[in-house]
From TrEMBL:
<dbReference type="GO" id="GO:0032153">
    <property type="term" value="C:cell division site"/>
</dbReference>
<dbReference type="Pfam" id="PF05164">
    <property type="entry name" value="ZapA"/>
</dbReference>
<keyword id="KW-0963">Cytoplasm</keyword>
<dbReference type="InterPro" id="IPR036192">
    <property type="entry name" value="Cell_div_ZapA-like_sf"/>
</dbReference>
<dbReference type="GO" id="GO:0005829">
    <property type="term" value="C:cytosol"/>
</dbReference>
<dbReference type="GO" id="GO:0000921">
    <property type="term" value="P:septin ring assembly"/>
</dbReference>
<dbReference type="GO" id="GO:0000917">
    <property type="term" value="P:division septum assembly"/>
</dbReference>
<dbReference type="GO" id="GO:0030428">
    <property type="term" value="C:cell septum"/>
</dbReference>
<dbReference type="GO" id="GO:0043093">
    <property type="term" value="P:FtsZ-dependent cytokinesis"/>
</dbReference>
<keyword id="KW-0175">Coiled coil</keyword>
<protein>
    <recommendedName>
        <fullName>Cell division protein ZapA</fullName>
    </recommendedName>
</protein>
<comment type="function">
    <text>Activator of cell division through the inhibition of FtsZ GTPase activity, therefore promoting FtsZ assembly into bundles of protofilaments necessary for the formation of the division Z ring. It is recruited early at mid-cell but it is not essential for cell division.</text>
</comment>
<comment type="similarity">
    <text>Belongs to the ZapA family. Type 1 subfamily.</text>
</comment>
<dbReference type="InterPro" id="IPR042233">
    <property type="entry name" value="Cell_div_ZapA_N"/>
</dbReference>
<dbReference type="InterPro" id="IPR007838">
    <property type="entry name" value="Cell_div_ZapA-like"/>
</dbReference>
<comment type="subunit">
    <text>Homodimer. Interacts with FtsZ.</text>
</comment>
<keyword id="KW-0131">Cell cycle</keyword>
Length: 100
């Protein structure tokens, strides 16, 4: 099933040979399983017919989730910056108290 230069994965009942370093093969298998689950969910809803359309909808949904998570990460970064600024203000206030 796998060797050091690549990995065979199955997506929607089709086999694909993917170049993959040995240390990343487990992650690639997990990714293929995750993708297959998403594809099966869309297929089982029955509103979209055709392998290509199902794949496009899964890709669109995953891209949307990825971009949404980046927005969430940006807001966490903003919180981190505000926390650092607050910490600086606290340090300055404590230093002023010690001096007085």
């Amino acid at each position: 099933m796998s060797d050091s230069s690549g990995l065979n994965i199955r997506i929607m009942d089709k086999d694909y040979r993917v170049a993959c370093p040995a240390d990343q093969q487990s992650s690639l298998k997990d990714s293929a399983d995750f993708l297959n689950d998403r594809l099966d969910d869309i297929k089982n809803k029955g509103s979209i017919i055709g392998t290509e359309r199902i794949a496009v909808m899964a890709a669109l949904n995953l891209a949307h989730e990825l971009l949404s998570s980046h927005v969430s990460m940006d807001s966490f970064s903003d919180v981190d910056n505000r926390m650092l600024n607050l910490q600086k203000k606290i340090d300055i206030a404590l230093r002023d108290i010690e001096v007085a």
